[in-house]
Amino acid sequence: MSVPPPETTEKERLANLLLDAIAFDERITRLGERLKRNLAANPAFHPPTKERLGTIGESRLRVTAPEVLRTPEVLRPMMVARYVAHFTEQELRELVTFYASPLGQKFVRCWSGDDTEMNRDVSEPTAARADELAQRLKKIDTDSE
């Protein structure tokens, strides 16, 4: 659970509560881990690149290709801004109330990766992005030699 800065508006606070209720950080982290596994399995990498992927690859990507490396820290402010722009304060309250409820949590569990069909729908695009990320990492690896 992320703690919003003290100067946030009520809408920003509610948007952060909504992201917490839908397990946003956990879901994005799981997607990132899946992407890393796909990258590690990619035959385009030679062994030294695979070894360095876990240590320097991610930190370099944060600087050189942040649009590819989507972490909760990168995405959360974007999602808060989007929710603040598109929902009223009352709508955000209603969304938080729903997603924090037992039915809302049941929906979140279904969407969060426990569902085999959902896993397939999410994994296929992630695997496709892994090839793009592999090429960027290969270029970073080549540039650093």
Task: Provide the descriptors you would attach to this structure in a database record.
about 140 residues; mainly alpha; about 80% helix
What does this protein structure show overall?
With 145 residues, the chain is mainly α. It has one domain. The protein is built from 7 helices and no strands. It has helices spanning 10-21, 24-40, 47-64, 72-86, 89-100, 102-114, 116-144. It is elongated, with a radius of gyration of 18 Å. The termini are far apart.
Quick structural gist:
The chain contains 7 helices and no strands. By secondary structure, it is mostly helical. Helix 1 packs across helix 4, helix 2 packs across helix 4 and helix 3 crosses helix 7.
The end-to-end distance, rounded to whole angstroms, is 39 Å
Q: What is the number of strand segments? A: 0
Average of per-residue pLDDT values: 77
Please, how many helices?
7
Can you give the helix content as a percent range? over 70%
How many structural domains can be distinguished in the coordinates? 1
Oligomer: single chain
Q: Give the percentage of residues in beta strands.
A: under 5%
Radius of gyration: 18 Å
